[in-house]
User: Fold 4-hydroxy-tetrahydrodipicolinate reductase from Halorubrum rubrum.
Amino acid sequence: MTARNAAGDGSTGGGSDPLRIAVTGAGGRMGREVIEAARARADVAVALAVNRTPTDPIAGVDVADAGHLADLLVDADPDVLVDFTGPESAAEYAETAAEAGVAVVTGTTGFDSGGTARLRAASEAVPLLKASNFARGVAALRRAVREAVAAVPGYDVELTETHHNGKRDAPSGTAKTLLDDVEGVREEVRGDPAGGDDRDRRVHGREGDAPREPNEIGVHARRAGDVTGEHEVLLAGNRETLALTHRAGDRGVFAAGALDAAAWLVDRDPDWYDFDDVLGDGVSE
Ligand SMILES: NC(=O)C1=CN([C@@H]2O[C@H](COP(=O)(O)OP(=O)(O)OC[C@H]3O[C@@H](n4cnc5c(N)ncnc54)[C@H](OP(=O)(O)O)[C@@H]3O)[C@@H](O)[C@H]2O)C=CC1
Ligand SMILES: O=C(O)C1=N[C@H](C(=O)O)C[C@H](O)C1
Assistant:
């Protein structure tokens, strides 16, 4: 990995060389967005773009065969690999990057425990940052949800996410992150992880004839049209409701966050990071 930043703080301003990124899944919705966003930034250069299947150049960037990633990383010498693919490939790409000493930013969702373990292992060799959502507004939503649940821990919680009809995984990675947040706060309020029958239980969808149990968290995934990504957390009780919602306008929101994360990650120590580490106490630009 070539250090591009004398400051060591991840910044690439001040006249230092642009951050060199490698993009996997270049032919995908997010891969294309990342390349276009990088091409519009002076502090980022696309050193390599690869895709599983043949793809025409994107924003003037040639796309190589992902099957040759290991050799291509040596030749291209990127600082960070930026991945938005599928769980089965993202883990493999992260391992390949780690072997090449290249840091990894992955936004891919839908990992099982095995895939997450492979990412964790890669983070022992290189800095690896994983986030289910790179929108700063979702980071703000997470903070608001944690505060709201702490204020009214006994209220019923129902989560609804809506995405385009091409999304494979359900519920979304962001939904799972928000559910972890809700359950973590409620366990903290209860004083210890609820090991008994009162522990939170995720109920995916709802049908049939049965009362809602107090410890349920309803989870609803909608797939329709070209919705970029919407997440609503509803809290209801005591004759009132509170709905906290984020709507992404376009995928540029995610690409901007991912590139900011890549610039922050470069030259960090090998470890496991998330987008909150990038944002620190504030989420604004
Ligand atoms: N963290 C965040 O902020 C965001 C995360 N995401 C996540 O990013 C991922 C990709 O989303 P999106 O770009 O819409 O998906 P697309 O289906 O549009 O693109 C997926 C890309 O990854 C490649 N790919 C998929 N599966 C494999 C595989 N098994 N092996 C090799 N390459 C593969 C595809 O290659 P090919 O062209 O050959 O099929 C394609 O280039 C999803 O997990 C999604 O949830 C999406 C938006 C924001
Ligand atoms: O697939 C998508 O499009 C998105 N996936 C991510 C997720 O699974 O949370 C993030 C965003 O909502 C868009």
Q: What stands out?
A: DSSP finds eight helices and twelve strands in the chain.
